[in-house]
Amino acid sequence: MWIYRQLVLVTTLCVLSDICSVDAIIYAQPSEASIFCRVYLFFVIWTSYLSFNYVCYDIVNLRNKKRLRHIFFLITLILSVIPFMLPISIMNEKNEVYSYGPAVSYTFIVAPIYIIGCIVMILFFNKLMNPYRSQAAMLWMILETTGAMIQLFNRELLLVSFSMALGITILFAKMENPDSGLDRNLGIYRIQMLYEYLKQLFYSKKHDCSFIIITGEDTEKSISSENLLLEISNYLKKQTSDKVFRGIGNDLVVAFSDDGTSDRQLIQIKKRFEAGWSGNQFPHPHFISIPSLKPFHNVSEFFTAYRYYSNIVSDSHEDFFVIDNDAINNMEKFRSMQNEIKAALKDDRLEIFLQPIYSVKEHKFVSAEALVRMRSDDGSIIMPNRFIPIAESLGQIEQIGERVFELVCKLIHDHDIDSIGLQYIEINLSVVQCENTELAAKFLKIMHKYGIDAKKINLEITESGAIKQKDILLENMEYLRKFGCTFSLDDFGTGESNLNYIVNMPVDLVKFDRTMVNAYFNNEKAKIMLESVTEMIKRMGMHIVAEGVEEKHQLEQLSKLGIDFIQGYYFSKPIPVSEFLDFVRRNNSSTSKL
Ligand code: C2E
Ligand code: CA
Ligand code: CA
User: Fold this and answer.
1) In terms of CATH architecture, what is 336-577?
2) Which of 345, 353, 388, 463 for mutating ligand 1's site (highest number of atoms within 8 Å of CB)?
3) Burial of 70 (0-12, 13-18, 19+ CB in 10 A)
4) pLDDT tens string 195-238
5) Whose CA is nearest to atom 21 of ligand 1?
6) Ligand 1 atom 20, closest CA
7) Which residues share a beta bridge with 91?
8) In whole angstroms, what separates CA 508 from the centre of its chain?
């Protein structure tokens, strides 16, 4: 505000002296006119200097940098008196009234340096600036530059001070109008003000503030949702008597000036939401609490975390999330892994390892599970449990899944797996992939590209509460099954599986999870369960794979029980393609069966 006021004052003086100089050229003596012209040039330099200051305000905390400020001030003072010492000429003919000569040329070299400085600052330090200010300032700079360029080539068009004045009017409308800080409909502060408010807090090192962010699933910006927001924001203003801002989209943000309040208030606010509102209901509200500003260094970090977690929270079932130190650290880890995945996809650094699956009845290896690996820059291998969950939550899993599918198709195309006794390869599908309506079409296209018989592909699905659109999964399954793909139910016997699933899902194989297989050998009740479930599944006409078999006695006992297929370290860990092919060739041809 302080810099802006100076800017308005000096720009006004600049425009006035511009008008006076034209007047003086026409009506006064040339010697008097040249003084007015020089005063005008003086203010042009000062306006440019203040523009630069204004842009820098967000980037460097000028208030604390007294020396820097003084040095800049002094330099500008010197630069701005130089026009008084340089010769100036005056043109006064019919329609052409202007000044020219060394003093004018000098000013039109110095002033643009500040303007270029502004543009460079906006471009390079964009992230540090209030985005609304950087947009407005950029527009302003473009206006000024355009005005100056037009005047440079059409001297009679005196546009410079006019464009300067227009520029700061735009700033006023976009940024500096005290009323523009308020949201017209809701009477709460706009998001621009949240930036400004946070900036102040970081400047004054006031970190013991807390925030509550209320975010919903994408509500359409309809009248009814505005009415609802009005009711909610009125409640928040009354209830908390603290600052209420409009956040990103239709989010609402409440700021508390100390660090315990948000916890207490959150309980109240949640209760109020549960009680319901008079009109529409807020669709699936999620509450994010930020108990302190300490984990953040600046405003941009605050907003990065806000954006990041509001996306995650609205996709999850939790209605409440706290952004604290741990959350910030996790976010950093997530983001660096996200970049790693992006690079791996781009540089083609995803590989598949294969783990052979043994058929008890045929006494040989009849299939394998493809398991993805990521080769990092330094050649080491990153295991899927480190990157799959992240890829799932950050939306990269579909690309990974497609890549894995393609790698398997390529393997089947390049090597005659039939001839070594392999009937199909199992590929893991993530829940996210299953909910994609295009999945079946994409996979069919890839199989077609490699000329693969769909019978050679078995897709592993897992049961998960996270599946929201089971109908899409079923459609995908039906479609692919028509072409010959088979399906397995993976991870059976872990937390999320329920018996209904095998009844309802058209799967051919059920894969017993390692934990269930291990429990079978250690726990009497688990033993009874596995035996009963085995009988049940077989009666339903499905086959069973036992995973995680590491010892011979396990293999023997499970075989006796009637388990059809065995997978585990006892035979082999997941291994690279060529090693795997050798392994199967060697073992399937030898007469001494395992
Ligand atoms: P999963 O589908 O249950 O795969 C089996 C995991 O158990 C593999 O771990 C395998 O190495 C391991 N395993 C196999 N036999 C034994 C054993 O005898 N003992 C022990 N201790 N472990 C055994 P991996 O390769 O680290 O994969 C972990 C998980 O990552 C997989 O679990 C799967 O959920 C996921 N995953 C792997 N590849 C893909 C993929 O291409 N797409 C998707 N969506 N998920 C994948
Ligand atoms: Ca699997
Ligand atoms: Ca499994």
Assistant:
1) Alpha-Beta Barrel (3.20)
2) 388
3) exposed
4) 989 988 988 888 889 999 998 765 444 445 777 888 888 899 88
5) 548
6) 548
7) 98
8) 39
At the fourth CATH level, the homologous superfamily of domain 181-323 is: Reverse transcriptase/Diguanylate cyclase domain (3.30.70.270)
pLDDT averaged over every residue in the chain:
88
497 CA → ligand 2 middle, Å: 14
- Euclidean distance between CA atoms 222 and 335, whole angstroms: 34
- List all residues 6 or more positions away from 207 whose beta carbon is below 8 Å from its beta carbon: 201, 292, 293, 294
pTM of the model as a whole: 0.64
Ligand nearest to the CA of 566: 1
Give residue limits of the domains in the chain: 2-176, 181-323, 336-577
The per-residue pLDDT for range 560-587, each reduced to its tens digit, is 999 999 999 999 999 999 999 999 999 9
DSSP lists the bridge partners of residue 546 as: 512, 566
Ligand 1, atom nearest to 567 Cα: 15
- Output the DSSP codes for 149-166: HHHHH-TT---HHHHHHH
Residue nearest to atom 27 of ligand 1 (CA): 384
Ligand having the closest approach to the CA of 516: 3
What atom of ligand 1 comes closest to residue 371's alpha carbon? 38
Closest Cα to atom 11, ligand 1: which residue?
A: 574
